[in-house]
Amino acid sequence: DTGVSQDPRHKITKRGQNVTFRCDPISEHNRLYWYRQTLGQGPEFLTYFQNEAQLEKSRLLSDRFSAERPKGSFSTLEIQRTEQGDSAMYLCASSQPKTRLAGGASSYNEQFFGPGTRLTVL
Amino acid sequence: RKEVEQDPGPFNVPEGATVAFNCTYSNSASQSFFWYRQDCRKEPKLLMSVYSSGNEDGRFTAQLNRASQYISLLIRDSKLSDSATYLCVVNVGVDKLIFGTGTRLQVFP
After folding, report:
1. Cβ distance A21 to A77 under 8 Å?
2. CA nearest B29: which of B90, B102, B72, B87?
3. Do strands A31-37 and A88-95 pair parallel, antiparallel, or not at all (unpaired)?
4. Maximal C-alpha separation, chain A
5. Which candidate from B32, B44, B45 shows the least CB-CB separation from A108?
6. Which residues of chain B have a CB within 8 Å of the CB of A45?
7. Cα A99 to Cα B48: distance, rounded to the nearest angstrom
8. Of B32, B43, B95, which has the smallest distance from its Cβ to A31's Cβ?
9. What is the arrangement of strands in the sheet containing A65-68, beginning at the earlier edge strand?
């Protein structure tokens, strides 16, 4: 399978514990994104990387959240001191580098999503 | 106000029906527009991009009205396999996707 993979697929933890999720993007993709999706809502952007550089973080990403992509390949998302409100599906996506089109515009490259990690905080 | 607003549905339609979903977005600087499909407990997948000129892919037609900040998706001849949640998505700047809450479609025999 050459798609985006995430591990674990499910995680149940007690409030106050730390959890770490892993995302392996499609191999030639240099952009990697994290989103969070709660029941009945669409995914919400958390952060994204271009290679190893974290270029943007959402206000949703509190100090308890940290994401890394140390070698520009896989990424980890850690949540410290989990709270019940952190229960959600955490989705990772990756895309190819943008290319410059005629006229100066940049292409949009499709973001491919992984299957997600479903977190339940008790 | 949410950046991307959709009617959550559900839309319950019989096979063969035509169904239309609408969506509005608030950021006039939005650059790209999409419909994603999400099956129950699965990841979102790109259904189609949306252009001002309108675009069609088989039974699916998408339309963008930049002046009204309005996006639509029309599904003709609905199939049971079309049952899913349809997410209206807007790209603002650096490929940050802003999703609507999704519209749930249930096609029945």
Report:
1. yes
2. B90
3. antiparallel
4. 53
5. B32
6. 96-98
7. 20
8. B95
9. A5-7, A19-24, A75-79, A65-68
Structure tokens at B36: 């994603």
pLDDT tens digits, B58-99? 999 999 999 999 999 999 999 999 999 999 999 887 678 999
pLDDT tens column, A98-112: 666 566 555 667 899
Distance CA A92, CA A105 (A): 26
Please identify which residue in the block is written with the tokens 């949540």.
A79
List A84's β-bridge partners, or say none. Answer: none
Q: Which of B16, B20, B23, B19 is nearest to B102 (CA)?
A: B23
Question: How many other CB atoms sit within 10 Å of the CB of residue A101?
Answer: 10
Asked if B107 and B78 count as a contact pair (C-beta separation under 8 A), the reply is yes
pLDDT computed for residue A80 by the predictor: 97
Backbone angles phi, psi at A39, to 5 degrees: -60, 130
Does B8 sit within 8 Å of A113, measured CB to CB?
Answer: no
Q: Report the amino acid identity of residue B24.
A: T
Residue positions counted in chain A:
122
One-letter amino acid at A95 equals S
Mapping DSSP to helix (H, G, I), strand (E, B) and coil, where does residue B80 land?
Answer: helix
Burial of A63 (0-12, 13-18, 19+ CB in 10 A): exposed
Task: Give the residue carrying structure tokens 């730390």.
Answer: A18
